[in-house]
Amino acid sequence: MRYFVLLIIVVLVACAPAAAPTFTPVPSITPTVFQPATPAADRYDGLPQAATALGFPQLGFPSAPVSLVVYSGFDCADCLTFFNDTLPPVLPRIRNGEALLTFVPLFNAQGTSNGETAARAALCAGEQGAFWGYHDYLFGLANGGAGEYTSDQLVAGVTTLGLDRTAWDSCMLSARTNATLTSARNSLNAQFADASAITSSVLAVFANNRNIPFDTASVTSGINMEAARVNAAVEAALSATDTPDPALTPDALSTAPVVVTLNPLQGQPIPPPITLDLPDGWGSGNDTLVLNDVTGIQSIPFSVYTGPVTNGTGTIVLLWAFPSLVAGNPLDTTAVEVDTFTDGVRLLRLAVIEQGCNIGVFEERSYTVGGLAAVGAPFSAVTCPATPDTQGWFAGVRFNEVGFIFYAFVDPIDSFTNARPQLQAILDSVRFVTPGSP
């Protein structure tokens, strides 16, 4: 067996995701108030529009380094201010590929009444790819002084946007939007110890999972800071020179195919709570690994992504939801932290590399995955009992208290230098299901 991925069925899916443009940070943009009588749909032309696994509408390129999550509602005075003052200068940052905007729909704030029905109406418009146009339409009504969203006004929005009225009516009469609205409230409760304390406003903004003030200057500054932080980390990771382990000779790092072996599988294809962009010709597969880990027998879900790279084949293995080790004083809970680096080394030896190999793990380094800071290290495995030598790196992150370790490698080894940026580009495109946890 050349790859453990032969143990599962890998469905090759050729996909051609929209490539985010190379961006130049925008230093400042003067806010302008957007007060439309009808939605300015053209301001969203050319921007990818999608939804998270929880149904939260998204706007922008998934590969953007900054994930901007906005808890908002259509019956919220602060949300209207955000729409008028902050969204206009944020839109160019989204179009430049700097930020991916996620709208978490809330309601029952102190403002325009009938906010829950308005949120459902917008989500139903989203089923026809028109959430953001309907979003503008509703805020346009609020700008016009509407004290409530009437049924006639909500239906008029369907006509204005040229939507299928029958499909929209069917959605409004169904319970399809219930799960999304419930998930939105649960997510807010998870982010704040006392979510009821902010229900009069509901507006909250997170940049790469960091809560920031929602005024225009703070959001713009937050995007600038997060983009700079992520870009610096990416540059550092890509420019780092991998120094071979002194114990490994150049002859040992042969050009033999990369081989990794996992323990028995359960045949439970659990998809990870992430999205990512795969190049043309790449495929993916999911399964569950049975592993004798530090706390006993564990079932750990994993995913494999594999496909062509320059002069070879690239593979990324993801292990997640595993038990983590901690570092610090166990008697002082404030000083105890999850040791993600040690998790990565442990799982490399226990699950990814064949037992009995001469494994070299280099010093801990900083990486990025999906715009989030990650820790990991280059690794090599030689003189294995049954599998060829291999070389690659791993990067681990924690999101919503769940651990994720990504192992990236190339076959053959001499393709690694040219293929590494291609593998990193895939890791850059990773987006964890936000907000919420798996």
Description:
This protein is of the alpha+beta class and 438 residues long. The chain has two domains: 4-12 and 240-432, Mog1/PsbP, alpha/beta/alpha sandwich (Protein Transport Mog1p, Chain A), CATH 3.40.1000; 41-229, 3-Layer(aba) Sandwich (Glutaredoxin), CATH 3.40.30. The protein has helices at residues 77-95, 115-126, 131-143, 151-160, 165-173, 178-191, 216-239, 340-352, 416-428; strands at residues 11-12, 49-51, 57-59, 66-73, 99-106, 204-207, 210-212, 274-275, 283-293, 296-309, 312-320, 326-327, 337-338, 358-361, 365-369, 372-382, 390-399, 402-411, 431-432. A hairpin with a 5-residue loop joins strand 2 and strand 3 (57-59).
CATH class of the largest domain: Alpha Beta
Largest sheet: 9 strands, antiparallel
Mean pLDDT across every amino acid position: 76
Number of helices: 9
The CATH H-level homologous superfamily of the largest domain: Mog1/PsbP, alpha/beta/alpha sandwich
Order of helices and strands: EEEEHEHHHHHEEHEEEEEEHEEEEEHE
Total count of strands = 19
Q: Shape, please?
A: elongated
Please identify, by name, the CATH architecture of the largest domain. Answer: 3-Layer(aba) Sandwich
What is the share of helical residues? 25-40%
Through-space gap between termini: 32 Å
The helix-and-strand class reads alpha+beta
The total domain count is 2
Approximate strand percentage: 25-35%
- Computed over alpha carbons, the radius of gyration is 24 Å
CATH fold name of the largest domain: Protein Transport Mog1p, Chain A
Which stretches are low in confidence, meaning pLDDT under 50 for 5 or more residues running? Answer: 1-39, 240-264, 327-336
